[in-house]
Amino acid sequence: MIRAMRFSSKTVGVASAVITVLIWSGFIVIARASASRGLLPLDIALARILGASSILLPWAWWLMRPARQAGQKVGSLFGLSPLPLAPTVQAGLLGGLLYAVLAYAGFFYAPASHAAVLMPGSLPLWTTLLAWLLLREKVSSARAVGLGFIVVGDVLVGGMSLMMAFDGGEVWKGDLLFMVAACCWSGYSVMVRRHGLDAVRATMAITAFAFLSFVPVYGVLIGTGLLPTHLHQVPWTEVAFQAVFQGMGSVVISGITFTQMVRHYGPVRSTMITALVPGLAALGAVWFLGEPMHWNLLAGLALVTSGILFGVRQAAKPAVATIPTVIAAVTPVVEVGAKP
Description:
mainly alpha, disordered C terminus, globular, 13 helices, single chain
């Protein structure tokens, strides 16, 4: 019976690609929708951390159990992180805490269509700059051209919002938060590559750091009234949904499916598939949220997607060592698998 239930490699690859792209695109649309349904940015971040922790922390504890039984000293943070303390704190601050808080805060100012362009779109730019500064990676002319497309696309979206700030608009604040969130994720991805961290263990580490650093502090601050919260003003089903989708879905499930997709299609083709995310997220914002699609958003989306695809197609030709940079450049949401 078990053998009969096994799926072919092609079926698993196709299903994994579909699930990954849908979750990554849905993250942007649902996060923006959540901004108008009662929960505050830190409330959503709390739900995300709790949802991911419910799976990853027991998994991490079980993963290190044999080593602990053998008397070895492994991990940190009371046995919840499989990595030493220093990389756990560094990775957890960038990829586990700051990214989530900044991204969710951005959705309270700017529409999802802006996030669809600026978060996935600016990741290749930040990742390339940080890899050049910290890893001394060379930037080929082909990648430079692709990055040029991305920069122009980002300017078309963010620049228009900045101009409207003179009329009292606040969309530019969200755009800035999206860009900084992408920079934090790129910093995390470069750090993972620099230290050669295992993907799954790094994800467990950042989740453990976020859980132990954010959850108790946030609980004390809202309990004493120093920080506002809407956790008591929304149905429990809303909080549960955020924990399931933002935590279990965006962090765990999409990470596993991304890993399977890379195994089947390879890193370059997988990255080309994930280049669908900006377009699908923008279309989802128009279809489900009723957001307008202005000319600058369409132009920015086209330029960003073209820049990603151009860079990936050119990356297929050089040495394999350049491929992780391409993967890391377009993984805005996933936190397991082919870790940025």
